[in-house]
Amino acid sequence: MTERAKRYVPRPLRRTTRGFALVLALLISIYVVAEVWVESDFVQGLVWVLAFLAFLVTLRALNTAPRTVYINATVMALLAVLAVVGLIVDQDGLTEPAGIMVAGYAFVAPLLILRHVLQQREITMDVIFGALAVYVFVGIDFALLYDIIQRVDSSAFATTGADSMFYLSFMTLTTVGYGDITPVTGWAQALTVVEALTGQILLVVIVARLVGMQIAQNLRPPSGREETGNR
Q1: Residue 7 has what pLDDT?
Q2: pTM attached to this predicted model
């Protein structure tokens, strides 16, 4: 952030927009908006806006170069304008670029956050929120993949009432699987297996890393003692 911007943006707000807590909050908002509200052009546009904001906040939380953040923000703003125009005039050709970009960001962001979390040497609340954001991102990503499969083959999933891909994804990710929506075709079944395994592996890797970091912190002598011992 430039010095001029810092003059007008309160310090608490600058701190908030540089952490993974806001990323997690935006992801939860995307889920709530997409699942609770009635599907409409307004809801679709709002989901895109929240997704764009989530990726920008992710870049800031990763201490990405300001130039990269500004370039992404400019591209997002242009796509958002095109999407709004496309929704108004009912032209899918104008809205598709925004949808493709949202999907691209959704798959790139968790990889960047996971690498950042695994590279940390100390546990902080920001690291914990980052790990949680990765887990939620994975659930959203698989929901997007399920939606693509369903659009290609409407018989890919059998339902007894529930037809939400977000619902299916998070039930699979947590290995709960209530059974009110189940994969039928080979591709759908294979993808749910991959997600279930990904969810468990992700938990094992992240939890093991966080526990290891906590043990290392507890065993590390305070800086004052360390200096005294060296003397």
Answers
A1: 43
A2: 0.81
Residue spans of the domains in the chain: they are 3-230
Neighbours of 66 (CB within 10 A): 13
Kindly tell me the burial class for residue 29, based on how many C-beta atoms sit within 10 Å of its own C-beta (0-12, 13-18, 19 or more).
middle
Highest mean pLDDT among 163-167, 198-202, 220-224: 198-202
- 8 A C-beta contact, residue 48 and residue 83: yes
Closest by CA position to 149, among listed 174, 179, 183: 183
Neighbouring CB atoms inside 10 A of 148's CB total 15
Can you name the CATH fold of 3-230?
Helix Hairpins (1.10.287)
Helices (H), the chain: 3-8, 11-16, 20-36, 41-61, 66-89, 92-119, 125-152, 165-173, 186-219, 223-230
Among 73, 43, 49, 50, smallest CA distance to 60 is for 73
Q: Above 80 in pLDDT, residue 4?
A: no
Of the listed ranges 101-110, 139-148, 196-205, 207-216, the least confidently predicted one is 207-216
Q: Enter the tokens of residue 206.
A: 């992240």
- What integer is the mean pLDDT of 92-116? 86
Closest Cα partner for 196 from 209, 211, 183?
183
| Residue in 30, 23, 17 with CA at minimum distance from that of residue 134 | 23
Mean residue pLDDT across the chain: 82
Answer yes or no: are the C-beta atoms of 110 and 137 closer than 8 Å: yes
